[in-house]
Amino acid sequence: xxxxxxxxTFDRTAAExxxxxxxxxxxxxxxxxxxxxxxxxxxxxxxxxxSWTKAGFEACxxxxxxxxxxxxxxxxxxxxxxxxxxxxxxxxxxxxxPAGADFKAxxxxxxxxxxxVRADMxxxxxxxxxxAExxxxxxxxxxxxxxxxxxxxLGPRVVWDALRPLxxxxxxxxxxxxxxxxxxxxLTGLDPETTLVVVVSKTFTTQETLxxxxxxxxxxxxxxxxxxxxKHFIGVTAAPDKAAAFGCGRTFAxxxxxxxxYSLWSAVSxxxxxxxxxxxxxxxxxxxxxxxxxxxxxxxxxxxPILLALAQVFNVDGLNRPARTVAPYAxxxxxxxSFLQQLEMESNGKRVHRDGTPVTRQTCPLVFGxxxxxxxxxxxxxxxxxxxxxxxxxxxxxxTHADAPESPLWSNALAQGQALMLxxxxxxxxxxxxxxxxxxxxxxRLAPHRTFTGNRPxxxxxxxxxxxxxxxxxxxxxxxxxFVEGVIWDINSFDQWxxxxxxxxxxxxxxxxxxGGPSADLDPSTAGLMTRLxx
Length: 535
Description:
Blueprint: H1 3-18, H2 22-28, H3 32-35, E1 37-40, E2 43-46, H4 54-66, H5 69-77, H6 92-96, E3 104-105, E4 108-109, H7 111-130, E5 143-147, H8 154-163, E6 171-175, H9 180-187, E7 195-200, H10 207-221, E8 233-237, H11 240-246, E9 250-253, H12 270-276, H13 278-297, H14 304-318, E10 323-329, H15 336-348, E11 366-368, H16 380-385, E12 392-399, H17 407-422, H18 426-435, H19 440-446, E13 458-465, H20 468-489, H21 497-515, H22 524-534
Parallel strand pairs: 5-6, 5-7, 7-8, 8-9, 10-11, 10-12, 12-13
Antiparallel strand pairs: 1-2, 2-13, 3-4
Helix pairs in contact: 1-4, 4-14, 7-12, 8-12, 12-13, 13-20, 14-20, 15-20, 18-19
């Protein structure tokens, strides 16, 4: 089947699905739950509440085959130049593979280098935790300030929030925003003598990161002897010479075949490896590697990342639903929606195909979310009763805390998915009003306001506990999902040119500020705003 034929069948089955109700599909297809659920690397996915019919589900699988998902997956793991605009391999799976793997980037063996960097990270992390690596005055490090932005921040931040102990031996704080308030909050209460600063920047030229690193350096310089300053600065970069020139005593490398938003498995998460303990970090890598193994080996119809991607494609392109909400029912996963915003929207928010021609279909939807049950008291009103249908994704942890009953938390997640699917008819709403003692007239008046159309899709991703292994599997699941969507949409998921234009223009605006005012070629609105802000 050609791609054009597959898309034609996809469109037809999507139109048919749009005219049916999800809840009625269970009676029409008794095997629906078994067919549309899968277990992988400690996670259970239930996609049976999605809008697709049995025929739509099969059409999505045919579209994946016609798009050569399996072939492109093989190219990714073989280290071919799947990032074609920059001529780079994309090998984040190499970063979490067991020692002794044999990954190659454009034919160059890289696994031995990965193993060596990982071994150096472990040695350093263990030394900091034991006190063998100490600060300028010989005192043990008690806090780490992680300075980065984007992929150099969100990945490690989601890992720390998910896995941090309640009373950590080493306090880890993150600074990303160029607003000085962010750094001021991070440094408050810390002792320069016991604070380690980890600066993460692939090029060591990122404006926000360098500005924050300079602020941290000034804070340390005011309190520490000059000869010991370098012990307090660690660089994580692909430009070690620039990090050394800045004042980093040690650097840990990562290569250009690691995209920023896919880099948490590398030295980018060194601060987590130190603060959590190396065994925790290594277990997270193992969980991600288990998901890699599943993604590579499972058939399409039983492949968790592929099915998760197909559900999104069906909603976005088949049913014109340009947004998705993610609600993690675990406080420790509160950063997950932010992480997914960058992972998915930076990867797949593209307007041209791989050959440069404009896309003719929708690509990445808007991604937003909050942890449950917080979101239920915010935007869930819209996803239940708003005119737009917004597919929902519930990430559910059966046991989030050792000493608390969990059913009130996960029962809310189950109820939300059920309510989205079933809804409530106007007749049922009126009967409910009468049962509450309302008059016939009042019950009829309120019934439309209490009506839920239902037939709104959701996916549940379930784990028994949030462990390093299941966290690694979950994040890798979403990485591979994002890749599969890019293959089906025929776009490059691994460049991010949209991030660059604003950076270039910001530098030009700063030149105008330094020159005393807007240049003649600046547009009137921007010039007026600059003049106002300069006072």
